Amino acid sequence: MPTVEYNLEFWSNYSWSDQGDEWSHAWGGTEFLWWGTLYPRIQAFIPTGSILEIAPGYGRFTTYFKDYCQELSIVDLAEPCIEICQKRFANYSHINYYVNDGKSLDMIPDRSIDFVFSFDSLVHAESDVIQAYLMQLGRKLKPNGAGFFHHSNIGHFKDGDGNLPFPNPHMRAESMTANLFAEYCDRAGLQCLSQEWINWGDQDEILKDCLSTFKVKDSHWNQNNRVLKNPHFMEEAKRLQNISVLYRPSRF
After folding, report:
1. CB distance 116 to 142 below 8 Å
2. How many whole angstroms separate alpha carbon 107 and alpha carbon 250?
3. What is the DSSP string of the chain?
4. Residues whose CB is less than 8 angstroms from the CB of residue 191 and which lie 6 or more positions away in sequence, other chains included
5. Is the pTM of this model over 0.90?
6. pLDDT by residue (tens digit) across 22-65?
7. 170, CA 20 to 30 Å: which among 14, 100, 125, 155?
8. Using H for helix, E for strand and C for coil, what is the string for 138-180?
9. Please, are residues 53 and 30 in contact by the beta-carbon 8 Å criterion?
């Protein structure tokens, strides 16, 4: 499934028809995705001093994170994405911009990040990429640092021959699972705080994605990993989409 090279080629040449907000249509817009779905899940971690956003695309969430920290770093393997973000947020001096190779965080100083975030991007990253990022984040996060990653869980559903018994139209990374993410965290000196198995798109019964929050071991975040299987995630999106026709800012 998606390799680093494939992702680089695909996202460097993607049309970005609605500046990335096209990926928020299921919620009725990015503002409803942010305030209705994402913010409630990360509110314990922001505002904070320094935030790292991995794979920001054209900055649909960057526009919110810039107001929740003193320093924001964004890292993407697609140079066109970083170039657009530099133009979009040119008036904000506290944002750092980096193009990477799809795995490396060498440009981020050790023990410098309070919170790391990625949504709707690393679902296309295979297990070697996720492991590489987590191993580095064990060093890059501050002693009380934490993170929120949206990643694939589709590998959990492979059959005994290593094949998926259903299609994979959303290009989920087939080598990743929620359990493997927790294992990688442990190896990296991190610990999962929670893992929410979620559905996505048209295969409502298949919890092929996972939202994982994690922390540095021995930090002040005192919670063992809690796992929730949530087959109603896309219903949440639909409810927000239904009310967006009334309350979308552009309607007033």
Report:
1. no
2. 38
3. ---HHHHHHHHHH---TTTTGGGGGGGTSHHHHIIIIIHHHHTTT-SEEEEEEE--TTTTTHHHHTTSEEEEEEEES-HHHHHHHHHHTTT-TTEEEEE--SS--TTSPTT-EEEEEE-SSGGG--HHHHHHHHHHHHHHEEEEEEEEEEEE-GGGG--TTS--SS--TT---TT--HHHHHHHHHHTTEEEEEEEEE--TT-TT---EEEEEEEETTSS-----EEEEETTHHHHHHHHHHHHHHH-GGG-
4. 185, 214, 215, 216, 217, 225
5. yes
6. 999 999 999 999 999 999 999 999 999 999 999 999 999 999 99
7. 100
8. HHHEEEEEEEEEEEECHHHHCCCCCCCCCCCCCCCCCCCCHHH
9. no
- The answer to whether 146 touches 193, Cβ cutoff 8 Å, is yes
Q: How far apart are CA 77 and CA 7, in angstroms?
A: 8
Helix 4-13 with 79-88: angle, nearest 10 deg: 50
pLDDT tens column, 88-144: 999 999 999 999 999 999 999 999 999 999 999 999 999 999 999 999 999 999 999
| C-alpha torsion angle, residues 99, 101, 106, 112 (rounded to 10) | 60
